[in-house]
Amino acid sequence: MSFICDRSTWACARISDAAARSCVTVAAILIAGVASAQTAPADPSPGEIVVKGARPMVRTSIDAKSFSLANDLQASTGSADDVLRNIPSVDVDAAGTVSLRGDPNVQILIDGKPSPLMSPANRAAALEAMSAGQIDRIEVMTNPSARLKPDGAAGVINIITKRSRRRGRSGTAQANFGSEGRFNLAATGAYNAGPLSLTASVAARQDARKRLIRDDRTGFGPTGPTVVSAQDVTNETKRLSLIETLGVDYDLSAHDRLSASATYNDRTGKPVQIEHDVAGDPLGAVTNDYLRLGGGHEREINTQASAKYRHLFSTRGREFSLDYQRGETRERQQFDFTNLYQTPAGPPTFDSQHLHTDELVQDLAAEYATPLPGKAKGHVGYDFQRDDDDYDNHGAKIDALTGLPVSDPNLTNHFILGQSIHALFATYERPIGKLTVLAGLRLEDVIVDTNQLTSNLRDHYSYFRVYPTLNLSYELSARETLKFSASRRVARPRAEDLNPYPVYQDAFNLRAGNARLMPQDVRSFEAGYEYNRRGTALQATLYFRDSRDIVTDVSRYISPTVLLTTKENLGKSLSGGVELAAEGKLSRFLSYTASGSLYEDRLDAANLNLGGPRSQLSGGAKISLSFSPTAKDQIQMSGNYLSKRLTAQGWRLPSYGANLGFRHTFNDSLAAVATVTDVFNTQRDRTVIATALVQDRYSRRLLGRAAFVGLTWTFGGGKTSVAESKFDYSAGGS
């Protein structure tokens, strides 16, 4: 074991040997950086930490919007979910759920590739643990071309990690310390010379999260209210995340390149939970008063490895690539609970839960690109993805007489999912005067096997679908562009959604999946206008989505006090609205980015006996102001607001938040940053269920206010060539 000391209290806490090794690696990179800074050529250009207005916050391609984090001060000290909250169209609630235009069915990629780290079950914790300092930019694609997988009904968010393209030796180091024992240490190093390019990084981040949950519920029968319940839960978790990456590119010749990369992510935490449940009749008589105290530990290890071969033919624009990706997540959680009963009175009981999750994603893709007549470009390819998920949960009650654990069937089940996706895709892109056309087609054959070992329930099904895409861009002038896009997309049920075994959540809640869920089918259409002139960028987008078989939560009483939440396919949904975004300067010292949306959702849940069509007008707004009183100082304020939104059985209520930041640049290599996240401690997620049988008000509040101070240091590196600095899409990392 090793120790880390908090200088503010001079208190030391033990950390794992893996953490110690990572800290040593950070120090080694820093020492190497000092040496390289003394021997590497001087770089007259500013480092990454210096913002001089050269790079706009938003760049667009025919099918993507790419948002730079260079001017976002939260990127220096915050986590990935902190900076995602500042991206137009993207929202992150208090539970860590990411949504795009109000739809949580979004695919999150890392450097253009799927990862178990970003599966819906893992992404909230992963984004909290991922340092924003590792991110170069974030791409948002609501109607991407057929080259990308159609997963994510709302679209795709692609997190592009940093990678130095400077010649010679270069690197960056960050050290940030925050309130409640938070810290963020990171270092990157790169070497680029001749045919060889090496990148390495290491990061250690400790974060503290506290959530307060309140759930007030009333159940109704034929003659009126039958039961009233209230639940209060406090969750506290301190997590330590260690991430190490290594990448290499080697040019075998002027036409052939081999690339490989590996990432190791080790996240540990010690959650503590206090739960108080009270139930009674409508007249106020208490029938159940129950206290549940729990604690334990969790560990999640994520590994990602890739290998790629690319060949450039002698004909310009013609190339072939072969890419293999392997990502694995192994999660282990252990919780021990003490149950205290006041009404009806009884002796305390004890139980434990062991949750084991293994997820493996493998992807093999081959792609061929070639120029075609008329300045056109064509891409064809094959993509195979294999998902293997294993969920093995064990629960036990402690026998009062023997003190030995006895298996509890309500807490024990074993579920396995296997899914294979074979895809063929082709795209055709051609400029026709001022019009650029990008058309694509993707054919997918999907095979799904589920096995609920505990219940001895097996299922097998397959489906074939065609996913067309169309993207148009018309240049009205050098400053103005019109765009149109259309695509068919899908949201596939995740493994937990397909597991039919009822899982114990707490005294008032059970949760179960549905083995016969169908994937959600979406037709998406957009039309947009873009204007760029002298640092001012304006964007306006009209969009419409027609969705069928939406996978949604449906809650029903199965006993006087227990609510079972299952997954069902909602009949259909229509959503459409307008989105506006602007970026520019209000004066020489004051710049801004702002975005807003207004849209209407229409849901038809008649197939689930939840009533006829319902509609809701919703909207949201985000604004960020950056004030630079001197060339070396920057003050930033940002805020966001999200209005009431529609759900299958009710609504989600409004939410809002605000952040502050300050940066002082000492020179081209060194800068200091101070930030405050969630200044007013307002991050909360509130939902309402309002049906004939259930009235429920649920509130999850995240006490997420965190203050950080830190330093960022950039060293080494020669000039970056024009080719190396070109702003590319769906790339990054290694």
Task: State the gist of this model.
The chain has 734 residues and is mainly beta. The protein is built from 6 helices and 39 strands. A hairpin with a 4-residue loop joins strand 35 (655-665) and strand 36.
Write a structural description.
The chain has a single domain, classed as Maltoporin, Chain A (Beta Barrel), CATH 2.40.170. The chain has 734 residues and is mainly beta. A hairpin with a 2-residue loop joins strand 11 and strand 12 (196-221).
Helix/strand layout:
Elements: E1 2-6, E2 11-15, H1 17-39, E3 58-60, E4 65-68, H2 74-77, H3 80-84, E5 90-92, E6 98-100, E7 106-110, H4 123-129, E8 135-141, E9 155-161, E10 168-178, E11 183-193, E12 196-221, E13 224-251, E14 256-269, E15 272-280, E16 286-312, E17 319-343, E18 346-372, E19 376-398, E20 405-407, E21 413-432, E22 435-452, E23 457-475, E24 480-491, H5 495-498, E25 503-506, E26 509-512, E27 520-533, E28 536-557, E29 563-585, E30 590-604, E31 614-630, E32 633-642, E33 645-646, E34 650-652, E35 655-665, E36 670-677, E37 684-690, E38 694-702, E39 706-716, H6 722-725
Parallel strand pairs: 7-9, 26-29
Antiparallel strand pairs: 1-2, 3-4, 4-8, 5-6, 8-9, 10-11, 10-39, 11-12, 12-13, 12-38, 13-14, 13-15, 14-16, 15-16, 16-17, 17-18, 18-19, 19-20, 19-21, 21-22, 22-23, 23-24, 24-27, 25-26, 27-28, 28-29, 29-30, 30-31, 31-32, 32-35, 33-34, 34-37, 35-36, 36-39, 37-38
